[in-house]
Design goal:
nine-stranded mixed sheet, 24% strand, binds zinc ion
């Protein structure tokens, strides 16, 4: 079978779509069991442990290097402290992170989206990159990380009553922003990644709301309450979700 990344005919590994690293590991004592109900039809909890024959072992090694970086950073984001990153609370709802390894972090996030798009499992059916799938394959293969304004990534943190829940893993339906952007989002390790799929158009917003090539990232804080009720989820997902996030993040309209 052909490896989906290098396109060579090799033995394929039974690859995780989402690495186990993102839903297992040591939590610190502050972390509690996740209170979100599993009953919403529109809000699918991502099924853990789904594997498919996608990658050869060489490509698997490559991808796992990005994932390791991403996971290490997410653990530190979750704990709000790090030996490698500078993590500062800018205001009640906003965290600033400096020192992220842009290339590995971004390739890690985009490779998860790419694998969900490749997956034939119905749990990932709302993730479909269409013509971008091949573009993703190429830049992932060449490790040619897209610029900060291409496939731009926003990150939000979810909490409930001051508690952070790293085991939160959720999928969302795709949707469109500003006509040219397909917005795909997923929550892993308690953080929501919003990816604006387009490599030509720049988003009409302050670039600081996205992961920067400098390694800087602003993370806005959200409440899990917004995900727990179906009505509020729907309103946030489909009304002004992105605009609201931008406003909260940077006050960019002023
Ligand atoms: Zn390969």
């Amino acid at each position: 079978m052909k490896c989906q990344l290098c396109n060579l005919r090799k033995d394929l590994r039974n690859s995780h779509i989402i690495s186990e690293a993102f839903y297992s590991g040591l939590y610190d004592n502050k972390h509690r069991a996740l209170p979100v109900q599993k009953d919403s039809k529109k809000l699918d909890l991502i099924q853990k442990g789904i594997r498919e024959k996608l990658l050869c072992s060489d490509c698997e090694v490559k991808v796992s290097r990005w994932e390791d970086t991403l996971k290490r950073d997410l653990v530190d984001f979750g704990n709000l402290e790090s030996n490698f990153l500078a993590i500062t609370k800018v205001s009640k709802g906003l965290i600033k992170v400096e020192g992220i390894r842009y290339n590995e972090f971004k390739l890690g996030v985009l490779s998860i989206l790419w694998r969900m798009s490749l997956s034939s499992n119905e749990y990932f059916k709302s993730y479909n990159l269409g013509p971008y799938e091949e573009k993703f394959r190429k830049f992932l293969l060449e490790e040619a990380t897209p610029r900060e304004d291409q496939y731009a990534i926003c990150v939000s943190r979810y909490e409930l009553n001051g508690n952070f829940y790293p085991e939160l893993l959720l999928g969302f339906p795709p949707w469109r922003f500003d006509r040219y952007f397909i917005v795909q989002k997923f929550i892993i390790w308690g953080h929501c990644f919003t990816i604006f799929v387009n490599d030509k158009k720049s988003l009409p917003v302050n670039i600081n709301v996205f992961l920067r090539e400098s390694g800087n990232l602003f993370i806005d804080m959200r409440s899990l309450v917004d995900l727990a009720s179906r009505d509020s989820v729907m309103s946030r997902l489909f009304d002004n979700d992105v605009e609201k996030m931008f406003e909260e993040k940077m006050d960019w309209k002023k």
